[in-house]
Here is the input.
Amino acid sequence: MKLSKKLTLSFVLVILFSIFIISLISNTMISNRFDTYLIEEQEKRFEIIRKDINNLFIERNRNLTNDDIASYADREGIYIEIRDLNNNMVCHSNNHSRGLRYGIMGHMKRHHRMMGHNLDNRGNYIEKTFPLISDDREAATLVIGYIDNSHLTESALIFKNTLYRSFIISGLITTLFGVMISVLLARGLSRPLLNITNTANEIRKGNMQSRVLIRSNTKEIVELSNSINYLGEALEKQENLRKRYASDIAHELRTPLTTLKSHVEAMIDRVWKPDEENLNILLAEIHELNKLVDDLKNSFQTLEGQMNMNKTLFDISSEIKDIISTFKPIFEKNRYALEYAIEKNIEITMDRDRFRQIIYNLLSNSIKYLDDNGKVFVSLDRVDDNIRITIEDNGVGIEKKDLPLIFERFYRSDTSRNRKTGGTGLGLSITKTLIEAHKGSIFVDSTLGKGTKFTILLPIDTSNY
Ligand code: ADP
Here is the structure.
């Protein structure tokens, strides 16, 4: 069953049930209370009649005739009888009890026909006795006969009927409104859901640009549509990245493979001698290829979270000094300066080899982009629960537009391509992933022509991550 139908049906059922219960309870309670009120009024009336007849009884020296009481009986629509203390009839209103009964019922029937009711409940004839008092003693008995539902006068019945009708009318109007509101509400909920489902299906079919375009003020629906849009964007990005990686990898592999192919072909054609020198050139190309494949493997492994970490506690201050000393000869050879300020005896728990790889990548990069009078400055200190490492060079710098992109796979700025640094554009992406795998972060700050500064923050204890 459709959600909108289900919602509408549930709303309508709840509305109908509520109206039924409210009408039933209010109608019964009001009606009962009204009946009690009418009966109380009738009893007050009987008491007044009793007093009046008692006064007349005393006035007429206990000698009342039929005519004396007939006017009361007529006026009140009741039967009156007076009996002496031996229970013998003294007088009675001329209307016989049966006649009285049918007279009253005839009157009630006329009324109900007028209101459109088919009421055949004739009611029961009831007699009530009251003492007539003279000289402070009971002197006779007054019998009042009436139909037990005679308290339901014409106006009382009209009132009850109006009440009953007003419940039915208000019930109908409320149901009508309820149905209208339920339909609107159900549509308001189901339409955006349908829209979201359609978008999700489009994305599933491969239409990655499809987005949910709905305006809703229901928080959950807005959140759901945002999530679907976010999912669509993420999938679109992934798809684009996948395509870009595929073409980048193909491109990176093609250059060394073409060189290898042309060299080997030249050897087959005997244009190139397969001597040691030439074979070493081929070997260097194969090394390059190997390195590229390793880098690729590393980069995708870290991306998929398959990195096996071997975390140990070690002195990062001496570790970083060690790495710097291995770089010293290359710097000296190029007449570059390598300076440092290392805070002593800082210990950290992390994967030592990965740490070496991080610093190695950043120092190799800085060398690649140095010019004459090149200088690199390395620092290490502790900030709260983190260690901070900076690697700063006075090299070519990075253009502002390139800064957000340098940590992406295969990204190389024009400067680096022009300088033919031989990079693959994977180094920084691997570095960043390794740092993030230790819950650290890396920032870059650079001015074109002036130099670049990388800052790394790593939590001292990464063993829990
Ligand atoms: P590559 O193998 O090309 O060095 P990286 O991922 O290590 O790849 O670096 C990406 C790009 O960031 C480089 O191509 C270069 O343009 C820029 N870059 C990285 N380090 C520096 C630096 N120290 N100075 C200037 N540019 C840098």
User: Anything to note?
Assistant: The pocket of adenosine-5'-diphosphate is lined by residues 365-366, 369, 393, 395-398, 406, 411-413, 415-416, 423-429, 452 (CB under 6 Å). The CA atoms of residues 121 and 136 lie 42 Å apart. The first strand starts at residue 79 and ends at 83.
